[in-house]
Amino acid sequence: MDEFNIWDLERVHIKIDIKVLQTINEKIFSRFKTKRKAYFKIFDKKEIPFDTFRNLLKYSYIKDFFVPLKIYLRLIDNLNISRKDVQNNIIAYKTGKGKNYIIEPILPIKITPIFDMILAHNIADGTVINPKKGRLPYFGYRQFDKFYRNLYIEKIEDVFGKIVFSKRYFEESTRPYCPPVLSSLFFKCYNLNERSFLSKYARIPKEIFSKDKDHLLAILIAFIIDEGHIDSTHVFIKLRNEGLISDLKKICDTLKYKSKSIYGKCETKDYGYLYILREGMKKLYKDYLLLRKKYPVVDMGRKGKKIKDSFKIYYRPIYKTKGNREIILNILKKEQLSVNQLASRINMTRQGIRFHIHNLIKDNKIKIVNKDNPNWIYCSK
Predict the structure, then answer these.
(1) What are phi and psi of 277, to 5 degrees?
(2) Phi, psi values for residue 320, rounded to 5°
(3) Using CB atoms within 10 A of its CB, is residue 40 exposed (0-12), middle (13-18) or buried (19+)?
(4) 105 and 161 Cβ atoms separated by less than 8 Å
(5) How many Cα atoms occupy the beta-carbon half-sphere of 244 within 13 Å?
(6) What single string gives the DSSP state of each residue in 131-195?
(7) Which pTM value belongs to this model?
């Protein structure tokens, strides 16, 4: 498993445990006798003023302020203090000038299937925000479903540690953000740039295809959450990017999920379509349950439930029997329901429900109650 240390991140400011600062001060006194002598031996005054250097070695200072990691690295490297020991005693870190910070950091950072799943979310429904004044770009993830929106943050925290937001705006907003200090690692890990996340040009990094099953499945699940449509016979993903569809098809083939892809057959030519067929859905769902045991944040939520419910249709005793129309009519005599509600109630496909609804209306046995609802509501006459 690949991993990255804190010094592999960009523009990091940190807070360290007081015992590390004690060791630094002891080493300075032992070798240089005074902080001033250590300062002029190790630093250039253009790099950091002496008064600032002296302050960051005070115990009271590090309780309230983050210190640039590069300053500590210069110090500990010159004082022969292990970088790993310092890393193990970092209590918080953030992007320089950033407001949001990470506590209880998980260091070194491991490139787990969840790391790659976050990357996939950012490819599928993410945007790269590039602020002015030379600040680091970062990810914004567009998600209207609150469950998936909060789960995105939980995935980030599963990889990096707990994030303290200055304001948990994403509870109401539809776009949670990944702090720049973390976002930058995704670029670095796979040698990506802003163009790598444009909807027409994004691709799955080629390095990922050599990873194990868990990484590939995590990526596929991310796309199902963000772009997938579930029906009783297949999972359907449509993207304005034929190359990305071919990448997802390659994942399906590697994982032996029966699927097919279509390019440019409908709408504009640059659209691609991936269908994970029924047999592929069964294997995918079984593998998903195993992966979720390892990583609970791999949760498909309502889309996972829709896949599970779709299997019930084919085990239903009255599936494809002539009595279905009478069952629908009897239900609509008691309550008003939409096609989706009926499909869920009696474990039928929406297509099958629509077929019977059309004929029941034709036979003047039911009527439409509410056309204003996105899903029309029906009842008996």
Answers:
(1) -75, 170
(2) 60, 35
(3) middle
(4) yes
(5) 23
(6) -STTPPPEEEE----HHHHHHHHHHHHHHH-EEE-SS-GGGTSS--EE-HHHHHHHHHHHT--GG
(7) 0.83
**Please, what are the averages of pLDDT over each run of 10 residues along the chain (381 residues)?**
91 95 95 94 88 92 92 95 96 92 97 98 92 82 93 97 86 87 94 91 96 98 95 87 95 97 69 92 96 97 91 59 74 80 72 79 82 72 79
Same domain, 304 and 337: no
- Per the structure, the count of domains in the chain is 3
Read off φ and ψ for residue 187, nearest 5 degrees.
-65, -45
Longest dimension (CA), the chain: 98
Domain extent at residue 284: 204-315
Residue 127 inside a domain? The answer is no
Query: Could you tell me how far CA 378 lies from the centroid of its own chain?
Result: 38
CB atoms within 10 A of CB 247: 24
Distance CA 21, CA 29 (A): 12
The reply to whether 93 falls in a domain is no
Dihedral sign, Cα of residue 110, residue 119, residue 66, residue 135: positive
Q: Please count the CA atoms within 13 angstroms of the CA of 213 that sit on its side-chain side.
A: 12
Residue 363, class by beta-carbon neighbours within 10 Å (0-12 exposed, 13-18 middle, 19+ buried)? exposed
Q: Which amino acid is at 297?
A: V
Rg (CA), the chain: 27
**Residue 32 CA neighbour count, 13 Å, CB half:** 17
By C-alpha distance, which of 149, 153, 158, 162 is closest to 104?
162
The answer to whether residue 267 is domain-embedded is yes
Neighbours of 26 (CB within 10 A): 11
Q: Rounded to the nearest 5°, which phi and psi values hold at 31?
A: -95, -40
Please name the residues in contact with 118: beta carbons below 8 A apart, sequence gap of 6 or more. Answer: 152, 155, 156, 159, 178, 186, 222
CA atoms of 101 and 293, how far apart (whole Å): 29
Is 165 inside a domain boundary?
no
- 236 pairs with which residues across the strands? 229, 275
